Amino acid sequence: MEEEMKEEVGDNHSQLNMEGALIARDRVGVQDFVLLDSHTSEAAFLDNLRKRYRENLIYTYIGTLLVSVNPYKELGIYSIKQMEIYQGVNFFELPPHIYAIADNAYRVMCTEYNNHFILISGESGAGKTEASKKILQYYAVTCPTTEQLQIVRDRLLLSNPVLEAFGNAKTLRNDNSSRFGKYMDIQFDFKGAPVGGHILSYLIEKSRVVHQNPGERNFHIFYQLLESGEDDLLRWLGLEPNPQKYMYLIQGRCAKVSSINDKSEWKTVRKAFSVIDFTETDIEHLFGVIASVLHLGNIQYEEDSNGHAIITNGSQIKWISKLLGVHLSILQEALTHRKIEARSEEVLSPLNLDLAFYARDAAAKAIYGRTFTWLVNKINGSLANKDLTRKTVIGLLDIYGFEVFDTNSFEQFCINYCNEKLQQLLIEMTLKAEQEEYELEGIEWEPIPYFNNKIICDLVEEKHKGIISILDEECLRPGEATDLSFLEKLEEKVGDHAHFLTRKLADQKTRKSIDWVDFRLLHYAGEVTYCVVGFLEKNNDLLYRNLKEVLCKSKNGIIKECFFPSELDNRRRPETVATQFKNSLASLIEILMSKEPSYIRCIKPNDGKESGKFDDVLIRHQVKYLGLMEHLRVRRAGFAYRRKYELFLQRYKSLCPATWPHWHGSASEGVECLIKHIGYKPEEYKLGRTKIFIRFPRTLFATEDAFEYSKHLLVTRIQARYKGCLGKREYKKQREAAIKLEACWRGALARKEAKRRMWAAETIKKFIKGFISRKNPLCPENDEFVRFVQYTYLTKLRDHVPKNVLDKNWLKPPAILEETSEMLKKICMRNLVRKYCQGITAEKKAQLQQKVIASAIFRGKKDGYLQSINQPFADTRLSERDINPKVLQLIRGEKVKYVTPVVKYDRNGFKARERQLVLTQSAAYVVEMAKIKQKIDYATLKGISISNLSDGLLAIHVPEDNKQKGDAILQCEHIFETVTKLCMLANKQNAVKVVQGSLQFHISSGKEGTIAFTTGQEPQIYKAKNGHLTVVSARIKS
Ligand SMILES: Nc1ncnc2c1ncn2[C@@H]1O[C@H](COP(=O)(O)OP(=O)(O)O)[C@@H](O)[C@H]1O
Ligand SMILES: [Mg+2]
Questions:
Q1: 165: Cβ below 6 Å to ligand 1?
Q2: Is position 174 annotated as part of the catalytic site?
Q3: Is 133 helix (H, G, I), strand (E, B) or coil?
């Protein structure tokens, strides 16, 4: 197998494909029989199987069915690495493997959320049990699991060695032959994790407990216990570590077998007990039962003089009484007597030797058989998953395979009947169902003939007519019924059946091979001759009533749970073994029919358990009866895959825009539209009435791959939606939180505000009260108000104190502070005055004196005065340097005090002449360059006239004296300054006269002139037509 892997794929398993396998097919055959050229040839089939077997390729497909040939050696193809390779890979992309079957069932279960079963069939020793173990291991390793589920996994795995120890034995066919049928459900949760399990067991071969054919053993557990049981334990059980000492273990004469390692198995079993919830008491009781069985086997009888059986050796029975906790003498009596009910009376009748041995063995079988059932229940208890969520299951059916021995008894009859039933199921579910389906779906189809074994099933199980019914009838009828009378009945009732034969019915040739006590059945898998001896007894499975009574009273926990007193009260005969088995098989088939099947067909390559030996005859026989050729033919002609339109559409509808997300027409139309869109070719599919049939796996795989890809897109969309939802939810939460916070905050604010208002109201109230009583003497009521008034007034005053001495504003005080205010005002004023005085220099003082005088002269009299106040007076407008030195020479001895340029108007013609006006301490001079044009002694100065308008004209009046040139008419820029200086120097403040309208002035030689003052747009001075000097002043905006 490993080699095949290497050959076909190298290391990269993703490249594995069927085509790759074709290259190697000459040597290793084809990995799917469907690919065989001559698919109808049995020889070609066998040839392919042989080629592969030789290359250690034990697995081959027929479509999805797996054919497995027992290699009888370790192949190293079950490693974890191998499991990983097969995990989640499309079925046909890798070489055939049991893991592919397991994985496929698992994937389909996960995606379609349905139940499955894997039917493993084949004759005894073909590898069924091994296969089921491999599958279980595969799930244990590859399925997702959690720490909690780890224990479930271990229990699932470890339930096997326990059941095998108690239910498997060495037979001639198989050293580890399952002597019970087992159907195990593995339960998975929606995530695909194994979460529990349940086991159904079928008909354990109890007769093996008391009898084994040569070359066979009893159940493994006996040998394991004796071989490896701890000394203490054995001593406690009263056992010796030697199987040869026990009658029940030595009949096959092969207690020791090289292929069986009882020691290591024992260890596994012991470990398993602890994992699957066995208490110390459980284990004690369980081995008590096992030991009791061995002791029972060693009980020997002899005949007394009356021909009654008596027990020869008392030690065994003592051990049994101890281990099972039953009364010694009652047990002894039960093993040698039989209670018979004669009318309402109970009579104890002693047993003869044969019946005593029968009673002993019946007890051993009943004890062992029921303990096995208890064990299965116990394991089920530990595998049970208690939560009620829906689970899907994969069932593993590993049931005893078809077997033929030299002597075949009731057990083989049951086992082979069971195999008939399973074959029937397979036919029903594959060959028959498949062909019927094509017909039903209206798919063109040429029927393929196959052998339907229903006829054999009917022969065995049909009501009233079948072998089981006849057997039951014989068991139950009154009178002397024996195995031989049963055989006669068979001949009588089913003698003419094509699959039934006895010596009497057989022809000359075959007669020799059938004994007088035999009947032969032509099973689907071949003919088996059964010896009827023991049939009745085994079918009745009778345990004497007094033995039952003893066991009911047992103190051993297990036995107590296995034998109920109610059983004794039930007068009805219990169902016979064959009928019980028939019913349990019927319900098993029902269970299986409700699930999706996968099949593994196991083939035994030779009878010698030898590796590498390919026995053509044996294998051809199995190929034939397993119906593999028919299966192949149906497969070849048929379709690899089919699905109901609804399901197909549901799964793949996202691949076509027209069907996604909803298709509103019928499902079949939807599928048609879908496959047209993804481009199926006509030969690749057929459309049935309710289903689509796809011929090749590759078509489906391509679709599945496309789906896989589209899933990612869908997922992103769903994710986005989901995230949107989450976001919205989060937003809502936050919004609610914010609203809550806001409400709280608003509440807090409102409370604060209310408090503030309360306080305010309180304060206002107090304030008003204070206000009302403010004039009363200081008392608590007005105290605060008064203080407040004082405080506010004073603080306000602080910001409103006058900034200079001229500022006469003063904050009006409240009544109570009037006095204080007055005082403060004074202090403040004084302070301001002081500060002001401190800030005055000599210059400023002189300035101020001048300004004071100017104020006296002009205030309220001449326009422009107010505007001029701010302009400080200059000391002089021209310096001495501007005066001609000659002039300076002339006025030498006088100190020049003030010089300013002026315009002089002639007295006669009013011509304007630029002149300088020089003021000394004693006289004013009108100077033109180097000439003094006029000197006016202050002493002679008669007056100065100016207008009330804003002009700069002044007339300096002098006495009418010849020497004098007359009054000087001057115009100067700084009239207020110049006039003030003149007045001050002349010390004639009162000499200034402010005139309105006009003034008369004196021209020399006694003549007078007139100057008229008016206002106008522009200042102007000119001689008017009337001969007056007209002075126009600009109107001053005030
Ligand atoms: N896949 C396998 N690889 C190696 N040996 C196998 C394999 N299958 C079966 N065997 C051998 O064949 C024996 C019988 O197989 P088993 O599964 O017990 O048969 P069945 O249950 O069909 O009677 C096993 O004990 C084992 O030695
Ligand atoms: Mg088996």
A1: no
A2: yes
A3: helix
